Amino acid sequence: xxxxxxxxxxxxxxxxxxxxxxxxxxxxAFERLTSIATEADLPALVAAxxxxxxxxxxxxxxxxxxxxxxxxDYLEPLFEAAQLNLDEGHDNDSFDMxxxxxxxAEPEKCRTKLEDLLARDGFKHHEIARWLxxxxxx
Length: 138
Hints:
Elements: H1 3-12, H2 23-36, H3 42-49, H4 56-70, H5 75-87, H6 93-105, H7 107-119, H8 126-133
């Protein structure tokens, strides 16, 4: 299980009074996480990306294994995290890359999921979903 790596990532990215972030520690923990994470770890990864202890960077890091392991079934929590990054003023460059790679890898499945989400009452992320639809070329 990946809980130890998640905790390390969240703890080491936490800016203390000195303003230092342990970038090397975060990256080493992330490399360990991606080397051992499986589909069974998706609930823990989703909880991690939704954690209030995150910042834009760790949300971008967690997005990659969620996309790789969970695919289009996890678009909604990914959109929520991406929107939070945008709301905080970040460009989501790495996050966007993970999402577009997912659309390129599974264009039909991604298109179907996005169309289902866009048709659902109460879905909040229309702009991001419509943007991602542009990458669902077949």
